[in-house]
Specification:
Largest sheet: 7 strands, mixed
Distance between the termini: 40 Å
Shape: globular
Order of helices and strands: EEEEEEEEEHEE
Number of helices: 1
Helix content: under 10%
Number of strands: 11
Length: about 130
């Protein structure tokens, strides 16, 4: 069973940076892609960024392109999200997710609220004050 554990959330001011981590506590040979999603208060879960676990191709939501960087360290079984120039509208619970068959590109376009992605973490809260 694959378990995902996020860390690194917190309270920051607009313009600050944060780095989120997602540790995968199991063998990753079955994983095809991994991604970050977020859910703002009262909102639905939205795509943020995804990366192919093996090939490393990346995809971003328009709202974070140029400010956020997704990466992974296969040796450490860990994915990261470097968030720069944070805005109050980035405030949300950030979730990492992984799938055995869905590509990173597909993760960038599916609706995570209605599509069954294999594995989810419990989330980490990011709050950006103005």
């Amino acid at each position: 069973q694959v378990q995902l554990v996020e860390s690194g959330g917190g309270l920051v001011q607009a313009g600050d940076s944060l780095r989120l981590s997602c540790e995968i506590s199991a063998h990753t040979f079955s994983i095809d892609s991994i991604a970050w999603f977020r859910q703002a208060p009262g909102g639905e879960r939205d795509f943020v960024a995804s990366i192919g676990w093996w090939h490393g191709y990346t995809y971003y939501a328009d709202s974070v392109q140029g400010r956020f960087t997704i990466s992974r360290d296969n040796a450490k079984n860990t994915m990261y999200l470097q968030m720069n120039s944070l805005k109050p509208e980035d405030t949300a619970v950030y979730y990492c997710a992984a799938d055995r068959a869905i590509t990173a590109q597909a993760l960038s376009v599916i609706d995570p609220n209605s599509f069954d992605i294999d594995y989810w973490g419990k989330g980490t809260l990011v709050t950006v004050s103005s």
